[in-house]
Amino acid sequence: VQLVESGGGLVQPGGSLRLSCAASGSIFSINAMGWYRQAPGKRRELVATITNGGTTNYADSVKGRFTISRDNAKNTVYLQMASLKPEDTAVYYCSAQPFFQLSPAYWGQGTQVTVSS
């Protein structure tokens, strides 16, 4: 499975940004896709996930501000981010979790999101 992210960039506090992740390869093996992020000097952390059935899960820090969605016809998952804060600055990674596994097995290359005035 290959994952390619796009949509990162520089945005002012309070602004919005949408990340996209296109998946290819053995997609039939994937149950859930998601987004993680890693800020400098910090561990990679979960942002949001979505299953094939549409069940979503969010980190408390982004609930009400971020929305994850997927277009199964396009094999693409999106992360719509609103009301961005400087602490959202990080490299955002797309992930894919196969069936019968408890954690992601595939990762994208990452896309930088910087929230600054």
Description:
- It contains no helices and eleven strands.
- It has strands spanning 2-6, 9-11, 17-24, 30-38, 45-51, 56-58, 66-71, 76-81, 90-98, 106-107, 111-115.
- Strands 2, 4, 5, 6, 9, 10 and 11 form a seven-stranded mixed β-sheet that branches. Strands 1-3-8-7 form a four-stranded antiparallel β-sheet, with no helix packed on it.
- The mean pLDDT is 95.
Give the tags:
11 strands, 4-stranded antiparallel β-sheet, 117 residues
Mean pLDDT metric: 95
Gap between N and C termini: 37 Å
Number of strands: 11
Rg estimate, integer Å: 13 Å
Strand content: over 45%
* Main sheet: strands, sense, barrel: 7 strands, mixed
Order of helices and strands: EEEEEEEEEEE
Name the overall outline: globular
Number of helices: 0
Roughly what percent helix?
under 10%
Which structural class do you get from the secondary structure elements?
A: mainly beta
Uncertain regions: pLDDT < 50 for 5+ in a row? none
Please give a quick description of this structure:
0% of the residues lie in helices and 54% in strands. The chain contains no helices and 11 strands. The protein has strands spanning 2-6, 9-11, 17-24, 30-38, 45-51, 56-58, 66-71, 76-81, 90-98, 106-107, 111-115.
Question: Secondary-structure blueprint of this entry?
Answer:
Elements: E1 2-6, E2 9-11, E3 17-24, E4 30-38, E5 45-51, E6 56-58, E7 66-71, E8 76-81, E9 90-98, E10 106-107, E11 111-115
Parallel strand pairs: 2-11
Antiparallel strand pairs: 1-3, 3-8, 4-5, 4-9, 5-6, 7-8, 9-10, 9-11
